[in-house]
Amino acid sequence: MTTDGAGVTDLPRIISVDDHVIEPAHLFSTWLPEKYRERGPQPLTAGIGGLAYVGGKYRFTTDPEGQLTDWWQYEGEFFPYKRIIAAVGFSRDEMTLDGITREQMRRGCWDPVERLKDMDLNHVEGSLCFPTFPRFCGQTFAEAHDKEVALACVRAYNDWMVEEWCGDSGGRLIPLCLIPLWDVDLAVAEIKRNAARGVRAVTFSEIPTYLGLPSIHSGYWDPFFAACEDTGTVVNMHIGSSSQMPAASPDAPPAVQASLSFNNAMASMMDFLFSGVLVKFPRLTLAYSEGQMGWVPYALERADDVWREHRAWGGVKDLIPEPPSTYYRRQIYCCFFRDKHGVASLDTIGVDNATFETDYPHVDSTWPDTKQVAADHMAGLSDEVTYKLLRGNAIRMLDLPFDRDRKAADA
């Protein structure tokens, strides 16, 4: 790599495996079958009122005197868009829990044409986007009372994601679909429906039991994992996709939760490593999103230690035939965007297991300075390792249509 005063001049264009999309107001009126539209999510613009944190979710009320905000109303609940989830373009001191309208957001938050322009400004070629109103793995629909409408909403969201959000992007916007979390057979059907049109990524909860769902140890999810393995669909788990964030004290400020957010990814990975799922489904791929990676080396060391020293009484002697790190290296990807400690530990984390993200348009996003941030993290690494971290591993993980000549040469 060569450098100049601005950073790396020949840095590979980035493929971000964790970004976010703000849903356009027309999503459900366009993509939901007409018979469900009155009972489906309704967009509205209204002032935002009080805030409470209940059951792992922020709950807001409307207020005619409050900050004008774009909302979704669904089954009597109100879901506002907040500035921290559409933060690009604002200063750090302006990135608050205040409400925001789409007109106040940078248009790339919800317009795919403008998103591509913002990606070009940010040295990004490809982007995998998690949902906002449905929440990270579709919890909004899983919690709905009318599951017939909820299922129609999941399918409508996926149709919009594939055909409208990603449709005209030339493969640069990478589809990430939802499943109906409340029914594993319906989930399998949705995996197959989307895989048939080229989708290779689904979002899932890092800790399903926090959502009142069966654990990954129960066997309940095995048909889902089998469908993902059979179709080459990557299971993507975003921090917060369990609707709970870790904190030591119930009255701790949100900064504590933000600092500990990697904890859920670490707990989830341990769960999978000792579950037998990765043994049973050796071609299943897991991807942890926004958890960073500096914690991975000790987690693997501890998991292997426990397997070696405690597997008999620990209940995994016959379940996990090889050290847990074996399955991590074979089947799990982590990702990062600000983690120099993780980069310094790549020998343990694995240069083939790490991917990069920009987190656009959230408060943590490195936009529009991602190229400089990446260059700072890649300093001293070889061209080959830099390529893998910034795009090559993502291409391999998601089977993306980029760099075909390079992949053929490596084969």
| Number of DSSP-assigned strands | 14
- Please tally the helical runs, counting DSSP H or I stretches of 4 or more residues: 16
User: Major beta sheet, specifics?
Assistant: 5 strands, parallel
Hey, roughly how much beta strand do the residues contain?
A: 15-25%
Q: Give the rounded overall mean pLDDT.
A: 92
Specify the CATH homologous superfamily.
Metal-dependent hydrolases
Class per helix and strand makeup: alpha/beta
Give the C-alpha Rg: 21 Å
How many structural units, i.e. domains? 1
Overall form: globular
Residue stretches low in confidence (pLDDT < 50, at least 5 long) are 1-7
> What is the topology, as strand order, of the major beta sheet?
10-11-12-13-14
The H/E string reads EEEHEEEEHEHHEHEHEHHHEHHEHHEHHH
CATH architecture group name: Alpha-Beta Barrel
> What is the first-to-last residue Cα distance?
24 Å
* Share of helix, binned: 25-40%
> What's the CATH class label?
Alpha Beta
Report on the architecture of this protein.
The protein has 411 residues and is of the alpha/beta class. It has one domain (3-39, 107-410): Metal-dependent hydrolases (TIM Barrel, Alpha-Beta Barrel), CATH 3.20.20. It is built from 16 helices and 14 strands. The chain has helices at residues 27-31, 112-121, 139-142, 147-165, 184-195, 222-231, 254-259, 262-273, 277-280, 296-310, 324-331, 340-344, 346-349, 370-378, 383-398, 404-410; strands at residues 3-4, 7-8, 14-20, 42-54, 57-62, 68-74, 77-80, 124-130, 173-174, 201-203, 234-238, 286-289, 332-336, 354-356. The strands form 4 sheets. It has a 5-stranded parallel sheet. Strands 5-4-6-7 form a 4-stranded antiparallel sheet, with no helix packed on it. A 3-stranded parallel sheet has the order 3-8-9. Strand 10 (201-203), helix 6 (222-231) and strand 11 (234-238) form a beta-alpha-beta unit. Helix 5 (184-195) packs parallel to helix 6 (222-231). The longest helix is centred in the middle third of the chain and has 19 residues, at 147-165. The two termini are 24 Å apart. 47% of the residues are buried. Mean pLDDT is 92; it is low at 1-7.
